[in-house]
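can u do me a favor
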């Protein structure tokens, strides 16, 4: 695990949340992206060596929609940057962690990502995040 890549925050209204975080961080440089695989739209802010990712669902069956229904807006996940997601998944599985993704999937900012189940990590949804060579 190299560092915290980003903190994902689930929001209902991306434009409204973005306005709040622009004020909070005093930063107008926002990166917008849609991640079709997760059915979300993201507005992200660089913060030092990591990012804050505001995440709004684009479909009612998005994982973020389910989270918003159950828990409301708030911190959704913590993402750790790793060298090799597949290798980390194998290591963590062998140590008894429960995986949501058995294999890496596409993430934002040209990354390959995978989630661990919060059941095995004290209620925290953890994402592993590997930069793609491009
Ligand atoms: Zn993430």
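np, heres the sequence
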């Amino acid at each position: 695990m190299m560092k915290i890549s980003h903190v994902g925050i689930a929001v209902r209204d991306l434009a409204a949340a973005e306005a709040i975080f622009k004020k909070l961080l005093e930063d107008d440089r926002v990166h917008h992206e849609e991640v079709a695989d997760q059915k979300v739209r993201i507005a992200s802010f660089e913060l030092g060596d990591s990012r804050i990712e505001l995440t709004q669902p684009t479909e009612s069956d998005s994982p973020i929609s389910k989270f918003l229904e159950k828990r409301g807006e708030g911190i959704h996940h913590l993402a750790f940057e790793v060298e090799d997601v597949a290798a980390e998944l194998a290591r963590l599985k062998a140590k008894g962690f429960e995986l949501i993704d058995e294999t890496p999937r596409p993430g934002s900012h040209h990354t390959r990502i995978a989630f661990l189940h919060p059941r095995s990590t004290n209620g925290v949804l953890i994402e592993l995040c590997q930069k793609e060579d491009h």
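The helical segments are 14-25, 63-71, 85-94. hope that helps!!
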